[in-house]
Design goal:
Strand content: under 5%
Number of strands: 0
Largest sheet: none
Radius of gyration: 16 Å
Mean pLDDT: 80
Low-confidence stretches: 1-15
Structural class: mainly alpha
Shape: globular
Oligomer: single chain
Order of helices and strands: HHHHHHHH
Helix content: 55-70%
């Protein structure tokens, strides 16, 4: 196998754990357009595991990171850790639940 083909294959096998959850485009579009209150209402109706998956998916996309962090902010740390693993879940929780000191820094 040529070197270039091997490196492309390796890159495909190293996808982020966050990107493994397919999310319907219609849902993403509705959430992206939603006001803060509408977003809160929409995600409140989702099971926590679904919110954690959605948050993980969004935070892995540059243009959806803020949305993902807002959604992750509705999840507890244990749910995020179950969905994306201990380290990534703890990191996502910390980024989406800033402490008062970090929020003002």
């Amino acid at each position: 196998m040529p070197q270039e083909a091997m490196s492309q294959s390796a890159a495909r096998s190293q996808h982020s754990a966050f990107a493994q959850y397919p999310i319907p485009l219609e849902l993403l579009a509705a959430l992206h357009r939603a006001s803060e209150d509408e977003l809160t209402s929409m995600v409140a109706r989702m099971p926590e595991t679904g919110r954690a998956r959605l948050a993980a998916y969004c935070t892995d996309k540059d243009h959806l990171q803020r949305l993902g962090l807002r959604i992750a902010g509705t999840c507890d740390e244990a749910a995020l850790m179950r969905v994306v693993g201990a380290d990534a879940g703890a990191s996502l929780y910390a980024r989406s639940h800033p402490t008062p000191a970090r929020a003002h820094a």
